[in-house]
Design a protein that fits this description.
By secondary structure, the protein is α/β, with parallel strands linked by helices. 33% of the residues lie in helices and 22% in strands. It has a six-stranded mixed beta sheet. Homodimer.
Length: 196
């Protein structure tokens, strides 16, 4: 089966291809097409953004499409950065700028109060009109400073529950087993394998 992955994020494409590598699903991405419509992520929820992207690209390509929206939710910051995770420090902010802003907002907050989780809403839309949404989460806390070079986004700051190292220190092998996206994909994989 051909499946379009609606994301421009190279890290997500690599992650998803790795996770689906032992299936008969051929993952297509933006590089496989000359032109794709832009989708503005303007919904207030991860689910809303994921569904909007999947619907628009499925309709345009007439291919089963997966889109996800994910981000970091920090308890003491009332859920920030949330759906604004990628542009927390501004529209074209770098990972470092986003991480710096987060650390600044958490200055003086004790380690035990720096609880957070990553959420991933993953939507699957087919040309026949089938729509499925799954949610994956990964609980943890925000470190006092960045650690590690692997991963992307907030990975250097996020220490998953049960570990004493950040996602960026643990590397993709472990992250791909315990991340919010991995948790969502385990659920989605079942739906994809049953889809004909």
């Amino acid at each position: 089966m051909k499946l379009f992955l609606a994301t421009g994020n190279e890290h997500k494409i690599k992650e998803m291809k790795q996770m689906l590598s032992n299936t008969k699903i051929k993952v297509l991405c933006k590089d496989d097409f000359a032109k794709l419509p832009e989708v503005i992520e303007d919904k207030e929820t991860f689910k809303g953004n994921a569904l909007k992207k999947a619907r628009k690209l499925c309709d345009y390509l007439q291919l089963p499409t997966i889109a996800d929206d994910s981000g970091l939710v920090v308890d003491v910051l009332d859920g920030q950065p949330g759906v604004y995770s990628a542009r927390f420090a501004g529209q074209d902010a770098s990972d470092k700028e986003n991480n710096d802003k987060l650390l600044k907002l958490l200055e003086g907050v004790k380690e035990e109060k720096r609880l957070a989780h990553f959420t991933c809403a993953m939507a699957f839309v087919t040309p026949e009109g089938r729509e499925e949404i799954v949610i994956g989460k990964s609980a943890g806390k925000i470190a006092l400073a960045p650690h590690g070079k692997a991963g992307f986004g907030y990975d250097p700051l996020f220490i998953p529950q049960g570990y004493d190292k950040s996602f960026a220190q643990l590397g993709s092998k472990i992250k791909n087993k315990i991340s919010h996206r991995a948790n969502a994909l385990v659920k989605m994989k079942q739906i994809l394998l049953e889809y004909r």
